[in-house]
Design brief:
Number of strands: 9
Number of helices: 6
Distance between the termini: 37 Å
CATH class: Alpha Beta
Shape: globular
Structural class: alpha+beta
Helix content: 25-40%
Number of domains: 1
Largest sheet: 5 strands, mixed
Strand order of the largest sheet: 1-2-3-5-4
Oligomer: single chain
Strand content: 25-35%
């Protein structure tokens, strides 16, 4: 039995509220159970120096957790004078995951920055950030298309992410914090809507895993991504 009482292949309740901020070109609040992330997308008519003049667009991301997004207060990274290694790793993951679903030629020479701010954390913050980040990105692109700034949609597919793991010897979908903290195997799966994989992060947290178990987790991830992709498309229709 999972601590939440969910079935092995059951995700937490997911909601995506769009246009939650006034100024950002795209924004949403994604809630996956008790993990809540504010995602905003900002369009700028510039690109990093290494692709300037190439005609290619760029999508990048920043990630952060509010001090009381967790059970005890965390010090703001700004007061420490630098970002932690985990933060840097996650925001790079978000950026390269979102870029995997973008036709950068169709996007034109502009940059979209997706900011993911964790309001409340209960496991799976990077997965929620990627899933909500795509929604914010799509809403920003929709505005560019409506304004006539780009001709065709550069987003070739929704990009979403879900965690899976081995908890109490069983493969489970969408780990919350109690499961994540005790899972023998923990994995994050980032995919396109058609199931094509972008990135898989799997690690033994207390027990090793077999090829058969890995295949079971991939099957669960495909189910979760299919459900999330449908929600993303409904939110941005």
């Amino acid at each position: 039995m999972r601590p939440s009482g969910r079935e092995l292949d059951e995700m937490r309740a997911v909601s995506i509220e769009t246009n939650v901020t006034k100024h950002a070109e795209g924004s949403c609040m994604i809630k996956m159970g008790d993990t809540h992330v504010l995602c905003t997308a900002t369009v700028e008519n510039r690109v990093p120096p290494f692709i300037k003049g190439s005609g290619l667009g760029w999508v990048t991301a920043e990630y952060g957790m509010l001090p009381r997004s967790t059970t005890s207060r965390m010090r703001r990274e700004a007061t420490a004078g630098k970002q932690g290694g985990r933060t840097v790793e996650i925001q790079r993951l978000i950026g390269r995951s979102l870029r995997a679903g973008v036709d950068r030629v169709a996007m034109g020479e502009r940059q979209i920055t997706v900011d993911c701010d964790v309001i409340q954390a209960d496991g799976g913050t990077r997965c929620a950030s990627i899933t909500g980040g795509w929604v914010a990105l799509k809403l920003a692109v929709n505005k560019l298309i409506k304004a006539g700034d780009i001709v065709s949609d550069p987003l070739v597919s929704p990009v979403s992410a879900i965690s899976c793991g081995i908890y109490a010897g069983q493969p489970v979908l969408d780990l919350d914090y109690p499961e994540d903290s005790e899972a023998g195997v923990d994995g994050n799966f980032i995919m396109l809507a058609n199931g094509q994989m972008i990135e898989v992060q799997m690690s033994a947290e207390g027990s090793t895993y077999s090829r058969d178990q890995m295949n079971l987790l991939i099957d669960l991830a495909e189910k979760g991504v299919s459900e999330l992709s449908a929600m993303q498309l409904a939110a941005t229709a």
